[in-house]
Design brief:
Elements lengths: L3 E10 L2 E11 L4 E5 L6 H8 L6 E6 L2 E2 L5 H5 L2 E4 L11 H6 L12 H13 L15 H13 L5 E5 L7 H18 L2 E5 L3 H7 L2 E6 L2 E6 L1 H4 L2 H8 L1 E8 L2 E9 L8
Parallel strand pairs: 3-8, 3-9, 6-7, 7-8
Antiparallel strand pairs: 1-2, 1-4, 4-5, 9-10, 11-12
Helix pairs in contact: 4-5, 5-6
Length: 262
């Protein structure tokens, strides 16, 4: 049984349909990339999976109906890192990550809560930042703090919306490599909405390709990142090359402009 099974998920903002009949599954230890053009419904899908939004369709977590679970139950199973993560408060990194323990907190912070925060900071290589102000971090440091905050929820599924946006090239690679390592070593399931197809190809086990709220393809990057799919989903002519078994996409031109590449 997959950890997460999504069948026939649809969602509308009032009279505007954003997602239509989306279906896929997610296994333990898997990184699933959600890709597609702007406006294809990637962020909305993540928000539906975290029950921030209430979609139509059937979403099951370990066989349980997600809509029947309490907010606390969901928070103990699914951790969501929104795009840009929101503004970080002028508190320490330790205090910021400790906020991820909210689903477990009672009247006071326990020693176990503190231990889990310290372990997450160490795992992400930011243990030395514990006393620094979170609002004064660089982009890469900030993203690691947000992932650490998600990890201390003890969630089995991490949902990340554009985790590499606004990061330089080195930090993009480091963040995606970290997510892949968490999946491989801790058997976490990761769903990442991502624009960079080449990062998705390198670090995701599978990808789901959305266009106008519908799934146009699902599978291994090598099977989906093709010239035909780039034309159908993004409206571009692209060369898809192979680098040690990993596809990478080189966009050439809009597919309907008739301009030849020189």
């Amino acid at each position: 049984m997959p950890l997460l099974r999504v069948q026939g998920l649809s969602f509308s903002y009032r009279d505007r349909r954003v997602l239509t009949d989306v279906s896929f599954s997610l296994e333990r230890g898997e990184v699933l990339g959600v890709v597609g053009p702007n406006g294809s419904g990637k962020t909305t899908l993540l928000r539906c999976l975290d029950r921030i939004l209430d979609p139509e369709g059937d979403v099951r977590l370990d066989g349980r109906d997600l809509s029947a679970m309490s907010r606390t139950e969901i928070a103990r199973t699914i951790a969501y890192v929104p795009q840009s993560g929101g503004a970080l408060n002028p508190v320490t990194v330790f205090e910021t990550v400790l906020m991820g323990r909210r689903p477990y907190l009672r009247w006071s912070v326990s020693e176990e809560d503190k231990r889990k925060v310290s372990e997450a900071l160490s795992l992400l290589g930011i243990g030395g930042f514990a006393s620094r102000r979170a609002d004064r971090l660089s982009g890469g440091e900030r993203q690691r703090v947000l992932i650490a905050r998600a990890l201390v929820q003890d969630a089995r599924i991490l949902l990340l919306d554009e985790p590499t946006s606004a990061l330089d090239l080195r930090n993009q690679i480091e963040v995606m490599a970290l997510l892949r390592r968490l999946a491989d070593e801790r058997r976490l399931a990761v769903v990442a909405a991502i624009h960079d197809l080449n990062l998705a190809a390198r670090y995701c086990h599978r990808i789901v390709m959305l266009k106008e709220g519908r799934v146009l393809g699902e599978g291994a990057p090598s099977s989906l990142l093709t010239g035909e799919m780039m034309r159908a989903v993004y409206g571009v002519e692209a060369a898809v090359k192979d680098e040690m078994g990993v596809p990478y996409v080189v966009p050439l031109r809009p597919s309907d402009d008739g301009v030849e590449v020189v």
